[in-house]
């Protein structure tokens, strides 16, 4: 069994059935664990119509094994295996609430470390208006490996169901707990700079067209903040001096990086 430790030793036995006085030395090897595929992230809808919905998702960067297929779950039950990154369902009941999540599976049978975010969709309603983009985002250091993004929501647009932040260097997505305008960012490296685009997420999982931006360099030796998870912001956007090039505030397409970074 992969990832399991076993104990072995040798005992001699004669033709008369007598065993040797002493057993051999004992060894305890551990079999190698099977590699996992990257976890699916950013599950969202692209079309919601009467009786149908189209789901779309991306892959994260937390696995090393290629993805063989994705398992789609509807209302907690297995629905189908998909080799691509989109699925259209046409036999749903209008007016009902459905929830979906995705699990990645490798050829060796291993699944991603986590499933995708759970997406709730009301079928048979017109697609909701996209939410307004956040006005700004700041940050608060929690400890040497964790920071918190503090989001100033925009006004107008559709219902805001949550917030999502994309870190441009690692292509990792981070999500808020519901509509709470705070995003916890874990597993950071001290001394490394990070650059985030922060989106609002609507009722049907669609992202705002615009985004807020924030960057920082994770310091070393930060003591845990006593007022986490509701600390006062201690930084301002681009406090490290990094800025996107002009006219790059609209995010369109599946490739998150729309421009290069430069320092003023």
From TrEMBL:
InterPro entries: FN3_dom, FN3_sf, Ig-like_fold, RTP_Phos/Ushers. It holds the Pfam family fn3. SMART domains: FN3. Residues 234-258 are annotated as: Disordered. Gene3D superfamilies: Immunoglobulins. One of its GO terms (cellular component) is membrane. Residues 245-258 have a biased composition (Polar residues). Residues 39-128 form the Fibronectin type-III domain. CDD domains: FN3 (cd00063). PANTHER family: CYTOKINE RECEPTOR. This is Fibronectin type-III domain-containing protein.
